[in-house]
């Protein structure tokens, strides 16, 4: 037998053995994977929490049959967790897509909405000041803050949207009558704002007393002239046309138009003064937003440059005048407020 034929036979056997070895290895791997394979046709997990808010503990539990391993991704850039049941805390409000990967194959996803942290008013942080019940237009109102550890002040006296004073002791002269709301913010903490009301009275007009009546003596009937035919008493006509003492009627604004104007305020296209006529001049009246008391003026300041979504609104008016007394608003939570 020649040398070339011997080499060919040897190579043929080597190739055959190589194929046999590869086949056995592949079969072993397949058998191992088949033995350890876990199905996960219906991936399902539950989410439970006392409240879905920032800082609250939330429990995630997988209920998938034949699940062997898990990978939880909470959508907030935190580390992946690998247990069947995990606890998680979200540090910011918003919507998060929580993904669960089971057995490295099957996946389920749920959206979890986290609300802002529930704010509890600390009464010890509320500004302290006193104000008298009434004052007359043109008189000087003096107020003083008595809050402990206060270093900055923002006084608003209810006639404009601007801050009227930034001193501990403030003075103000009202130019228009009406019920005004005074608000004070100290140390920049707008969540702890104290508001008080003062009734601004109009200036009383002094009546001149008649000390003496002088005149000439006339005989009865002197100077009296007969009225011509067709004469009408113009003074009587004026009396008929004169308005009675009825309350001043302000323009009526509907709920949808009110919301549209608030959206323009949130987009910085209007300010609280756009509502002045509807509030009979007092845009600093108390309103209720998501169950919390605030003033309309402060509410307009807070919603500027924020995405406003009002769910419901109720406007309470004075009978006969359309003057708005107060408003209750239900809205989606906005970052940093209410």
Descriptive tags:
alpha+beta; Immunoglobulin-like; four-stranded mixed sheet; 4 helices
Give an overview in words.
The radius of gyration is 40 Å and the shape is elongated. The protein has four helices and 16 strands. A hairpin with a 2-residue loop joins strand 13 (286-289) and strand 14 (292-295). The longest helix has 34 residues, at 3-36. The mean pLDDT is 82. It is an alpha+beta fold. A four-stranded mixed sheet has the order 7-12-11-9, with no helix packed on it. A four-stranded mixed sheet has the order 14-13-16-15. The protein is 18% helix and 28% strand. The chain has helices at residues 3-36, 234-241, 255-266, 296-302, and strands spanning 45-48, 57-62, 70-73, 85-89, 94-102, 106-114, 134-136, 140-144, 153-156, 169-173, 178-186, 193-201, 286-289, 292-295, 310-317, 324-331. Among the domains are: 45-114, Immunoglobulins (Immunoglobulin-like, Sandwich), CATH 2.60.40; 123-201, Immunoglobulin-like; 255-331, no CATH class. InterPro entries: Ig-like_fold, PKD/Chitinase_dom, PKD_dom, PKD_dom_sf. The chain crosses the membrane at residues 15-34. This is PKD domain-containing protein. It comes from Bizionia paragorgiae. Residues 224-246 are annotated as: Disordered.
